[in-house]
Amino acid sequence: MINDPYKVLDLPEDSGEELLKARYEELKAKYSEQRFASGEEGNEGANKLMELEEAWRMISEQLEKSRAKENFGGDFGQIDDLIKKGKYDEAQAMLDSCTDRSAEWHYLQSIIFYKRDWLTESRKQLKMAVEQDPSNEKYKTALTKLEMVMGNPQTNPQNLGRPQGAPVINDDSAQQTANCLSNCCLAYCITDCCCNAARCCG
Fold this sequence. Notes:
Blueprint: H1 5-9, H2 17-34, H3 39-72, H4 77-84, H5 88-96, H6 103-115, H7 119-132, H8 137-150, H9 174-199
Helix pairs in contact: 2-3, 4-5, 5-6, 6-7, 6-9, 7-8, 8-9
């Protein structure tokens, strides 16, 4: 467990993001090459690379929270509250006012699109979030679950997230009912995952 990720980069905690990223890239190239050396030197390079990646993950999370405070005067919890209340236009307005389109920004945008049943656009935003922060399990999990739903040709977007016990649209057979209920369950999991994760960003 790394206590101080900034020590791994040998930089002070108040270093700028560009400097931190430049040092990360520098050390990553160094350790990536060193790990292929023979004997103890190679083992040390591999261990250093693993330590570096963990340190950068921790620093990236801290930078994300700092950007959120700068952009919204607090944290992304404000947007989460608006989404939970169904005030998607207000939540969208807050996102639109943000000039820094970070990974978390795209993640929250995907939630709003999902709530409006714009699944294709939601997936695009989740992909952008993963591309910007590929080590973030929250983004990858949400994208995987959404693609599971969209990958089933029998999925009816009108049924996604519908209340339990509500009638299934175009229910022509028991098999279709089972498939639709399965998709609804997956969609519920995505929504629950997104909202819970957003609440933890503060």
